Amino acid sequence: MLKAEKRQLFLTDHCLSLQIAVNLSPTLIFGSVFVLTFLQRLRNNILAGTLNNLKNARL
Q1: Whether this model's pTM surpasses 0.70
Q2: Can you give the pLDDT of all 59 residues of the chain as single tens digits?
Q3: How far apart are CA 14 and CA 44, in angstroms?
């Protein structure tokens, strides 16, 4: 009886963690995509800024 209860608890816990992971995964995917695009834009802006600074320095 005790063994069966432990197994049931383990399975319930496992299902709960799986459910949490499934619920969080879209949020994590969208969040990481947002962060990546933000960082890419930031990098592009920094590169464009340094290129403009170099051009201005040459003039």
Answers
A1: no
A2: 678 777 777 778 877 787 877 788 888 888 889 999 999 999 998 888 888 887 887 76
A3: 43
Residue corresponding to tokens 């608890």? 9
What is the Cα–Cα distance from 1 to 12, expressed in whole angstroms? 16
In angstroms, the CA 5 to CA 24 distance is 28
CA 22 remoteness from chain centre: 14
Distance in angstroms (rounded) separating the CA atoms of residues 3 and 54: 72
Question: Tokens representing 42?
Answer: 């930031």
Q: How far apart are the C-alpha atoms of 8 and 39, rounded to whole Å?
A: 45
| CB-count exposure of residue 57 (10 Å: 0-12, 13-18, 19+) | exposed
